[in-house]
Amino acid sequence: MPNVVIVMGSKSDWPTMQNAALMLEKLGVSYTAKVISAHRTPNLLTDFSEQAASQGYQVIIGGAGGAAHLPGMIAAHTHLPVFGVPVRSSQLNGIDSLLSIVQMPKGVAVGTLAIGEAGAANAGLLAAQVIGLQNPDVQQAIKDFRAEQTATVLAQDELILPSL
Ligand code: RP5
Fold it and tell me: Of 34, 38, 77, 156, which one's alpha carbon is 20 to 30 angstroms from that of 104?
């Protein structure tokens, strides 16, 4: 069974959530992705969440837009860590998604990321960091990614300010 499962409320969330998948791939973390809706398929959501740990998943990433109760409802049914990604909505630009994911009442935790693509990529990164605690190869891949990112930024600086 893959280590990480990416759950999204609709196929329309995939252009955002694929950024989590790309990050997991880059860091060598096995994952799968599913469409499960908190309000359109509530029974499936309950079954999935209750069985996620016994299925072998270690981290769940939940992405949804609008009244985005998906990550919170998953977290209510499992002890696994859940990271929530607010998907940008057409009406309120994702502010509704952010507030409904981030503002969890005390006692059930969802680690909420930024709205949109950056949040999805960082959810993949954070999930990899959790997996990396027990997996030296993933941990090394994260260190390499960070070093590469730093080198890229330093190179940009040299490009912009050659004479300083
Ligand atoms: C949520 O409603 C989904 O997560 C999606 O972001 C939003 C709109 O879904 P569609 O109407 O595009 O299927 O359930």
Answer: 34
Residue 36 CB burial class (10 angstroms; 0-12, 13-18, ≥19)? buried
Name the residue type at position 155: A
Quote the number of domains for the chain.
Answer: 1
Residue 161 lies inside a defined structural domain of this protein: no
What's the domain range around 23? 4-155
Q: What is the pLDDT of residues 71-109, one digit of tens each?
A: 999 999 999 999 999 999 999 999 999 999 999 999 999
155 Cα to the center of ligand 1, angstroms = 40
Q: In sequence order, what are the beta bridge partners of 112?
A: 84
CATH of the domain at 34: 3.40.50.1970
The partner residues of 83 in beta bridges, in order of sequence, read: 61, 111
10 is in an annotated binding site: yes
Q: The whole model's pTM is what?
A: 0.95
CA of 79 to the centre of ligand 1 (A): 25
Mean of pLDDT over the chain: 96
- Angstrom distance (rounded) from CA 8 to CA 46: 14
Mean pLDDT, range 136-154, rounded to an integer: 96
Say if 163 falls within a structural domain: no
